[in-house]
Structure prediction request, 291 residues.
Amino acid sequence: MKNIKKYQKLLVLVMTGMLAASCSSTRFSAQKFDNSSYANLSQQDKQLADTLIKKVLDNEGIYTVISGLKPMSSVTELYLDIAAVDTLLRGNAKITDTASEDLKKLKRYQRIVNTLNFGDLRFMISPYRAHQKKQRTMQISVHRKSLVDSLLLADQSFFGQFGFVPGTSPEILINTTEYEHKHNRFRAYGHLFGYPEHAVSFFTEASISESRTGEFVKRDFLQLPVFSSQTGRFVYAVPKGYKAAIVDHNIANRAKYALASYQAERSRYARKDGSVRYYELLLSLLKINGR
Prediction:
């Protein structure tokens, strides 16, 4: 509890400064990128790429694209029958049917995700460590390298134990995190997903406590709205009965400002039929926020 209060006080100072800066829109270092790969996609693949971009912008990924709140956001998941059914098959050279429709599907998504590289902002596909029999879950996510670097610098005492320092490839960091011990994984993902320190510590320590005692630690949840929903997208756990602190209010205010900015820009790219030109919208948001 003492450590949580210490972190809260520190975060209040940090977040207050960040909130003031965000009032003129959080800006990222400009980076050039080549969008010719996207231009060369088939019309069907462009439609799928736009669907992935929509999932980012209309959900919590918007806080990775703008505002600087979330170094990383989940986009969607793929469920593919490509894994080994039996642990006895570990080390076997022939597991996956290379002609399977699921592997073809993965190759298509990988090809499309590879075109969604915007310099500082990048999409990626990574496998979950756990799988159900033959089904492997693949996570598509989006991250900002500059935010990941800032996170690694700010939380060096935690991430340093794994050999991660500013400049580490976010893809390596995220994949390694997925295969770490669950408590390290919870803390690392908590930071990557942009939750405040007190929430990350609570969730991790609650998991440790439950592992030791077998008793679930009761909790409440704080919710931040996105374009698609008021709840259930950007949400973090807090102790039962917890009252939102200044750091939580600051996060909420930054999210509110970013969401309002997004809604205004989104309306400019809406077609008469209600559909949205998501790829062009993303490029505009990146330009406005300095990439």
Summary: The two ends are 39 Å apart (CA to CA). Residues 1-25 have pLDDT under 50 and may be disordered. The chain has one domain: 2-288.
